[in-house]
Amino acid sequence: MSAIVVRPVTAADREAWAGLYRGYRDFYGKPHDPAVYDTVWGWLLDDTHESRALVAELDGTLLGLGHFRRFSRPIDGAHGLYLDDLFTSPEARGTGAGTAILHRLAEIARDEGASLVRWITADTNATARSLYDRIAKETPWVTYDLAPAAE
Fold this sequence. Notes:
Layout: E1 5-8, H1 14-27, H2 34-45, E2 52-58, E3 61-73, E4 78-88, H3 97-111, E5 117-118, H4 126-135
Parallel strand pairs: 4-5
Antiparallel strand pairs: 1-2, 2-3, 3-4
Domain N-acetyltransferase: 4-151
Protein name: GNAT family N-acetyltransferase
InterPro entries: Acyl_CoA_acyltransferase (IPR016181), Bact_Acetyltransf (IPR050832), GNAT_dom (IPR000182)
């Protein structure tokens, strides 16, 4: 039996990544602007950009993606990893792909000296939250978004 492999995204993954990213954007009701896909893909392949990506693969098929980046934690004088996006295809749910990506992120955090891996999810995302509740600790923090100032 094959095992799920979690690895960094490569240039050859573009089409499969885009399919997963489309599913992620569909889940959150985001429009499909080709410029966004091109921008994010460019970030992921640029070694100097903060954004990085992991993919979960089984027998040559990508099952999931995780976009993440390093962030500073001034209160602790440390840094963490921030998981911006985690998505597995609907047919891959329950295969362990999401768990495998999160475990790999924990290993990267350890290897890079990060103090934690942090992420947010929608309160209504029950499927993902059932996974998160098993392997991570929910925080008491409330999230806010502030729009840029008007001209």
